Amino acid sequence: MFHGRVLPEIAAGLKVLRKRIAEAAIPSSRLDESLNIATWNIREFGRKRRSQAAIHYIAEILGQFDVVSVVELRDDLSDLGRVMEILGPYWRVVYSDALTDAGGNRERIAFLYDRRAAVFTGFAAAVNPPRLRNGNGEYQPAFTWWRQPYMASFRAGNFDFVLLAAHIQWGTSDGRTKELASLAEWIELKRSESTREDKDLIVLGDYNLETPAHVKALTSRGLALPIAFRGKAIGTNLARDKSYDQILHYPVYPETFSNRAGVLDFYTGGIASLFPGLEKDAFTYQLSDHLPLWMQLRTDIEGFELDQILRESKAKARKA
Protein backbone atom coordinates (compact mmCIF):
# COMPACT_ATOMS: atom_id res chain seq x y z
CA MET A 1 0.00 0.00 0.00
CA PHE A 2 1.35 3.41 -0.98
CA HIS A 3 -0.65 6.10 0.85
CA GLY A 4 2.32 8.48 0.95
CA ARG A 5 2.24 11.83 2.76
CA VAL A 6 -1.49 12.25 3.23
CA LEU A 7 -3.24 15.15 4.95
CA PRO A 8 -3.61 14.79 8.74
CA GLU A 9 -7.39 14.31 8.48
CA ILE A 10 -6.93 11.46 5.99
CA ALA A 11 -4.29 9.88 8.24
CA ALA A 12 -6.75 10.05 11.15
CA GLY A 13 -9.48 8.51 8.99
CA LEU A 14 -7.19 5.69 7.89
CA LYS A 15 -6.44 4.88 11.53
CA VAL A 16 -10.17 4.61 12.26
CA LEU A 17 -10.77 2.56 9.12
CA ARG A 18 -7.96 0.14 10.01
CA LYS A 19 -9.57 -0.42 13.39
CA ARG A 20 -12.85 -1.33 11.70
CA ILE A 21 -11.01 -3.60 9.29
CA ALA A 22 -9.32 -5.35 12.22
CA GLU A 23 -12.75 -5.95 13.77
CA ALA A 24 -13.76 -7.85 10.61
CA ALA A 25 -11.12 -10.48 11.56
CA ILE A 26 -10.07 -11.23 7.99
CA PRO A 27 -7.40 -13.95 8.22
CA SER A 28 -4.11 -13.50 6.41
CA SER A 29 -3.76 -15.53 3.24
CA ARG A 30 -0.67 -17.69 2.67
CA LEU A 31 1.11 -17.91 -0.66
CA ASP A 32 0.12 -21.04 -2.61
CA GLU A 33 -2.03 -22.21 0.31
CA SER A 34 -4.96 -19.82 0.65
CA LEU A 35 -6.56 -16.86 -1.11
CA ASN A 36 -8.88 -14.13 0.15
CA ILE A 37 -11.53 -13.23 -2.43
CA ALA A 38 -14.19 -10.54 -2.08
CA THR A 39 -16.99 -8.85 -3.95
CA TRP A 40 -17.87 -5.18 -3.50
CA ASN A 41 -20.45 -2.92 -5.09
CA ILE A 42 -18.73 0.50 -4.99
CA ARG A 43 -21.61 2.86 -5.62
CA GLU A 44 -21.43 4.64 -9.01
CA PHE A 45 -17.63 4.32 -8.98
CA GLY A 46 -16.40 6.77 -11.59
CA ARG A 47 -19.65 8.68 -12.14
CA LYS A 48 -18.37 11.65 -10.17
CA ARG A 49 -14.81 12.26 -9.01
CA ARG A 50 -14.28 11.03 -5.44
CA SER A 51 -12.48 13.02 -2.76
CA GLN A 52 -8.86 12.19 -2.04
CA ALA A 53 -9.90 10.74 1.32
CA ALA A 54 -12.37 8.37 -0.35
CA ILE A 55 -9.73 7.16 -2.82
CA HIS A 56 -7.37 6.31 0.04
CA TYR A 57 -10.13 4.58 2.02
CA ILE A 58 -11.29 2.53 -0.99
CA ALA A 59 -7.70 1.43 -1.68
CA GLU A 60 -7.23 0.48 1.97
CA ILE A 61 -10.35 -1.70 1.88
CA LEU A 62 -9.53 -3.37 -1.44
CA GLY A 63 -5.98 -4.06 -0.27
CA GLN A 64 -7.24 -6.41 2.44
CA PHE A 65 -7.99 -9.05 -0.20
CA ASP A 66 -6.12 -10.89 -2.95
CA VAL A 67 -8.81 -10.85 -5.66
CA VAL A 68 -11.85 -8.56 -5.66
CA SER A 69 -14.80 -8.29 -8.04
CA VAL A 70 -16.08 -4.72 -8.28
CA VAL A 71 -19.53 -3.90 -9.66
CA GLU A 72 -20.96 -0.46 -10.45
CA LEU A 73 -17.62 0.58 -11.90
CA ARG A 74 -18.56 3.25 -14.43
CA ASP A 75 -17.24 4.03 -17.90
CA ASP A 76 -14.85 6.72 -16.58
CA LEU A 77 -11.89 4.84 -15.11
CA SER A 78 -10.07 7.86 -13.67
CA ASP A 79 -10.88 7.08 -10.04
CA LEU A 80 -9.98 3.43 -10.52
CA GLY A 81 -6.59 4.58 -11.77
CA ARG A 82 -6.12 6.71 -8.65
CA VAL A 83 -6.91 3.69 -6.46
CA MET A 84 -4.53 1.44 -8.40
CA GLU A 85 -1.66 3.88 -7.82
CA ILE A 86 -2.17 3.58 -4.05
CA LEU A 87 -2.49 -0.20 -4.17
CA GLY A 88 0.91 -0.31 -5.80
CA PRO A 89 2.80 -2.02 -8.65
CA TYR A 90 1.80 -5.60 -7.80
CA TRP A 91 -1.86 -4.94 -8.43
CA ARG A 92 -3.56 -5.49 -11.78
CA VAL A 93 -7.11 -5.17 -13.10
CA VAL A 94 -9.22 -6.86 -15.77
CA TYR A 95 -12.48 -5.12 -16.66
CA SER A 96 -15.42 -5.28 -19.06
CA ASP A 97 -16.62 -2.71 -21.54
CA ALA A 98 -19.22 -0.18 -20.39
CA LEU A 99 -22.89 -0.51 -21.27
CA THR A 100 -23.99 2.93 -22.41
CA ASP A 101 -27.80 2.65 -22.36
CA ALA A 102 -30.03 3.45 -19.39
CA GLY A 103 -30.43 -0.20 -18.42
CA GLY A 104 -26.68 -0.73 -18.42
CA ASN A 105 -26.16 2.47 -16.39
CA ARG A 106 -22.75 2.98 -18.09
CA GLU A 107 -21.44 0.23 -15.83
CA ARG A 108 -18.48 -2.13 -16.06
CA ILE A 109 -17.43 -5.08 -13.93
CA ALA A 110 -13.80 -5.40 -12.84
CA PHE A 111 -11.57 -7.95 -11.17
CA LEU A 112 -8.69 -6.46 -9.20
CA TYR A 113 -5.96 -8.84 -8.09
CA ASP A 114 -2.61 -8.87 -6.36
CA ARG A 115 -0.36 -10.79 -8.74
CA ARG A 116 1.81 -11.96 -5.85
CA ALA A 117 -1.14 -14.09 -4.72
CA ALA A 118 -3.01 -14.88 -7.95
CA VAL A 119 -2.34 -14.64 -11.67
CA PHE A 120 -4.73 -13.93 -14.52
CA THR A 121 -4.54 -16.90 -16.90
CA GLY A 122 -5.80 -15.26 -20.08
CA PHE A 123 -9.55 -15.83 -20.31
CA ALA A 124 -11.89 -12.86 -19.86
CA ALA A 125 -15.27 -12.41 -21.51
CA ALA A 126 -18.75 -11.03 -21.18
CA VAL A 127 -21.33 -13.76 -20.66
CA ASN A 128 -23.14 -14.50 -23.92
CA PRO A 129 -26.51 -16.23 -23.63
CA PRO A 130 -27.31 -19.13 -25.95
CA ARG A 131 -28.80 -18.13 -29.30
CA LEU A 132 -31.80 -19.60 -31.08
CA ARG A 133 -32.52 -19.45 -34.79
CA ASN A 134 -35.77 -17.66 -35.58
CA GLY A 135 -38.07 -18.00 -38.58
CA ASN A 136 -35.96 -15.57 -40.61
CA GLY A 137 -32.84 -17.66 -40.15
CA GLU A 138 -31.33 -15.14 -37.74
CA TYR A 139 -29.74 -16.12 -34.43
CA GLN A 140 -31.18 -14.27 -31.47
CA PRO A 141 -30.30 -14.56 -27.74
CA ALA A 142 -32.56 -16.90 -25.80
CA PHE A 143 -32.61 -14.43 -22.92
CA THR A 144 -30.99 -11.16 -21.93
CA TRP A 145 -29.79 -9.29 -18.86
CA TRP A 146 -29.84 -5.58 -18.11
CA ARG A 147 -26.09 -5.79 -17.53
CA GLN A 148 -24.07 -8.67 -18.94
CA PRO A 149 -22.18 -10.70 -16.35
CA TYR A 150 -18.42 -10.82 -16.78
CA MET A 151 -15.94 -13.60 -16.08
CA ALA A 152 -12.18 -14.13 -15.94
CA SER A 153 -9.80 -17.00 -15.17
CA PHE A 154 -7.16 -17.07 -12.45
CA ARG A 155 -4.70 -19.39 -10.78
CA ALA A 156 -3.53 -19.40 -7.18
CA GLY A 157 -1.20 -22.17 -6.05
CA ASN A 158 -2.32 -25.20 -8.06
CA PHE A 159 -5.95 -24.10 -8.01
CA ASP A 160 -7.38 -22.87 -11.34
CA PHE A 161 -10.74 -21.16 -11.25
CA VAL A 162 -13.06 -18.80 -13.08
CA LEU A 163 -14.76 -15.89 -11.36
CA LEU A 164 -18.11 -14.82 -12.73
CA ALA A 165 -19.49 -11.51 -11.46
CA ALA A 166 -22.92 -10.03 -12.10
CA HIS A 167 -25.02 -7.02 -11.17
CA ILE A 168 -28.64 -8.12 -11.46
CA GLN A 169 -31.31 -5.51 -12.17
CA TRP A 170 -33.00 -3.71 -9.31
CA GLY A 171 -36.16 -3.28 -11.45
CA THR A 172 -39.35 -5.24 -10.84
CA SER A 173 -39.29 -8.31 -8.66
CA ASP A 174 -40.58 -10.49 -11.52
CA GLY A 175 -37.96 -9.15 -13.90
CA ARG A 176 -35.28 -9.77 -11.31
CA THR A 177 -36.47 -13.35 -10.78
CA LYS A 178 -36.28 -14.03 -14.53
CA GLU A 179 -32.74 -12.65 -14.74
CA LEU A 180 -31.63 -14.74 -11.78
CA ALA A 181 -33.18 -17.91 -13.23
CA SER A 182 -31.65 -17.34 -16.67
CA LEU A 183 -28.23 -16.73 -15.13
CA ALA A 184 -28.52 -19.98 -13.16
CA GLU A 185 -29.46 -21.76 -16.40
CA TRP A 186 -26.49 -20.26 -18.25
CA ILE A 187 -24.06 -21.22 -15.48
CA GLU A 188 -25.30 -24.81 -15.57
CA LEU A 189 -24.82 -24.91 -19.36
CA LYS A 190 -21.29 -23.53 -19.02
CA ARG A 191 -20.42 -25.96 -16.25
CA SER A 192 -21.56 -28.86 -18.41
CA GLU A 193 -19.44 -27.96 -21.44
CA SER A 194 -17.05 -30.75 -22.35
CA THR A 195 -14.42 -28.25 -23.58
CA ARG A 196 -14.29 -26.08 -20.49
CA GLU A 197 -10.74 -25.62 -19.20
CA ASP A 198 -11.33 -24.57 -15.60
CA LYS A 199 -13.58 -26.79 -13.53
CA ASP A 200 -14.20 -24.48 -10.61
CA LEU A 201 -16.59 -21.61 -11.20
CA ILE A 202 -17.10 -19.09 -8.40
CA VAL A 203 -20.08 -16.79 -8.79
CA LEU A 204 -20.11 -13.45 -7.00
CA GLY A 205 -21.46 -9.92 -7.20
CA ASP A 206 -24.63 -7.96 -6.46
CA TYR A 207 -27.73 -10.10 -7.07
CA ASN A 208 -30.23 -7.82 -5.31
CA LEU A 209 -31.78 -10.79 -3.50
CA GLU A 210 -34.80 -9.73 -1.47
CA THR A 211 -37.32 -12.58 -1.51
CA PRO A 212 -37.28 -16.39 -1.21
CA ALA A 213 -38.27 -16.49 -4.90
CA HIS A 214 -35.08 -14.60 -5.80
CA VAL A 215 -32.92 -17.03 -3.83
CA LYS A 216 -34.72 -20.04 -5.31
CA ALA A 217 -34.23 -18.73 -8.85
CA LEU A 218 -30.49 -18.21 -8.40
CA THR A 219 -29.95 -21.63 -6.80
CA SER A 220 -32.42 -23.52 -9.02
CA ARG A 221 -29.69 -25.36 -10.98
CA GLY A 222 -27.57 -26.44 -8.02
CA LEU A 223 -25.54 -23.31 -7.40
CA ALA A 224 -24.97 -23.14 -3.64
CA LEU A 225 -23.66 -20.96 -0.88
CA PRO A 226 -20.38 -22.05 0.71
CA ILE A 227 -20.89 -23.68 4.09
CA ALA A 228 -19.52 -20.58 5.82
CA PHE A 229 -22.56 -18.56 4.66
CA ARG A 230 -25.36 -21.08 5.09
CA GLY A 231 -27.95 -20.28 7.70
CA LYS A 232 -26.28 -17.00 8.60
CA ALA A 233 -27.32 -13.38 8.23
CA ILE A 234 -24.74 -11.88 5.89
CA GLY A 235 -26.23 -8.43 5.37
CA THR A 236 -24.10 -6.40 2.97
CA ASN A 237 -26.07 -3.15 3.00
CA LEU A 238 -25.16 -0.51 5.56
CA ALA A 239 -28.09 -1.51 7.81
CA ARG A 240 -26.85 -5.15 7.62
CA ASP A 241 -30.37 -6.48 6.94
CA LYS A 242 -30.20 -7.29 3.19
CA SER A 243 -28.13 -10.01 1.54
CA TYR A 244 -27.80 -8.31 -1.82
CA ASP A 245 -24.24 -9.45 -2.44
CA GLN A 246 -23.34 -13.11 -2.68
CA ILE A 247 -20.54 -15.60 -3.25
CA LEU A 248 -21.73 -18.97 -4.60
CA HIS A 249 -20.13 -21.97 -6.25
CA TYR A 250 -20.23 -25.39 -7.85
CA PRO A 251 -17.29 -26.90 -5.97
CA VAL A 252 -15.37 -29.71 -7.57
CA TYR A 253 -13.34 -29.87 -4.36
CA PRO A 254 -15.67 -28.87 -1.49
CA GLU A 255 -12.70 -28.71 0.86
CA THR A 256 -11.43 -25.70 -1.11
CA PHE A 257 -14.07 -23.48 0.46
CA SER A 258 -12.98 -22.78 4.02
CA ASN A 259 -15.24 -21.76 6.88
CA ARG A 260 -13.60 -18.35 7.03
CA ALA A 261 -15.89 -15.69 5.58
CA GLY A 262 -17.69 -12.51 6.49
CA VAL A 263 -18.47 -8.87 5.80
CA LEU A 264 -16.08 -5.95 6.18
CA ASP A 265 -18.19 -3.33 7.97
CA PHE A 266 -16.61 0.08 7.39
CA TYR A 267 -19.85 1.89 8.33
CA THR A 268 -20.73 0.87 11.90
CA GLY A 269 -19.10 3.35 14.22
CA GLY A 270 -20.24 6.41 12.33
CA ILE A 271 -19.40 8.63 9.40
CA ALA A 272 -17.92 11.61 11.22
CA SER A 273 -14.51 10.09 11.90
CA LEU A 274 -14.05 9.29 8.20
CA PHE A 275 -15.82 12.25 6.56
CA PRO A 276 -16.52 15.01 9.08
CA GLY A 277 -19.77 16.86 8.36
CA LEU A 278 -20.92 14.49 5.60
CA GLU A 279 -24.52 13.24 5.47
CA LYS A 280 -25.27 9.54 4.97
CA ASP A 281 -26.40 9.76 1.36
CA ALA A 282 -23.30 11.73 0.36
CA PHE A 283 -21.20 9.19 2.29
CA THR A 284 -22.53 6.37 0.10
CA TYR A 285 -21.21 8.19 -2.97
CA GLN A 286 -17.80 8.54 -1.34
CA LEU A 287 -17.41 4.96 -0.07
CA SER A 288 -20.55 2.97 -0.90
CA ASP A 289 -23.99 1.83 0.19
CA HIS A 290 -22.72 -1.78 0.09
CA LEU A 291 -20.17 -3.55 2.28
CA PRO A 292 -17.56 -5.97 0.90
CA LEU A 293 -18.37 -9.67 1.27
CA TRP A 294 -15.33 -11.94 1.54
CA MET A 295 -14.25 -15.53 2.01
CA GLN A 296 -11.01 -17.48 2.11
CA LEU A 297 -10.23 -20.28 -0.35
CA ARG A 298 -7.77 -23.10 0.15
CA THR A 299 -5.61 -23.19 -2.97
CA ASP A 300 -3.27 -26.09 -2.18
CA ILE A 301 -5.55 -28.78 -3.62
CA GLU A 302 -3.02 -31.44 -4.65
CA GLY A 303 -4.14 -33.73 -1.84
CA PHE A 304 -7.78 -33.30 -2.86
CA GLU A 305 -6.86 -34.14 -6.49
CA LEU A 306 -5.08 -37.33 -5.41
CA ASP A 307 -8.09 -38.36 -3.34
CA GLN A 308 -10.37 -37.81 -6.32
CA ILE A 309 -8.14 -39.94 -8.58
CA LEU A 310 -8.38 -42.78 -6.06
CA ARG A 311 -12.17 -42.40 -5.74
CA GLU A 312 -12.57 -42.51 -9.53
CA SER A 313 -10.31 -45.56 -9.75
CA LYS A 314 -12.33 -47.43 -7.12
CA ALA A 315 -15.60 -46.50 -8.86
CA LYS A 316 -14.30 -47.88 -12.17
CA ALA A 317 -13.14 -51.08 -10.44
CA ARG A 318 -16.61 -51.63 -8.96
CA LYS A 319 -18.23 -51.26 -12.40
CA ALA A 320 -15.76 -53.65 -14.06
What is the overall shape? globular
What is the mean predicted local confidence, pLDDT? 90
Q: What integer value in Å does the Rg equal? A: 20 Å
Element order: H for helix, E for strand: HEHEHEEEEEEEHEHEEHEH
CATH superfamily: Endonuclease/exonuclease/phosphatase
User: Pairing-aware structural class of the strands and helices?
Assistant: alpha+beta
Q: How is the largest sheet built, in terms of strand order?
A: 3-4-2-1-13-12
What is the fold-level CATH name, i.e. the topology? Deoxyribonuclease I, Chain A
What low-confidence regions span 5 or more consecutive residues with pLDDT below 50? none
Q: What's the oligomerization state?
A: single chain
CATH class: Alpha Beta
Number of domains: 1
CATH architecture: 4-Layer Sandwich
What count of helical segments does DSSP give? 7
- What is the number of strand segments? 13
Largest sheet properties: 6 strands, mixed
Distance from N terminus to C terminus (CA atoms, Å) equals 58 Å
Helical residues, percent: 25-40%
User: In what range is the share of β-strand residues?
Assistant: 25-35%
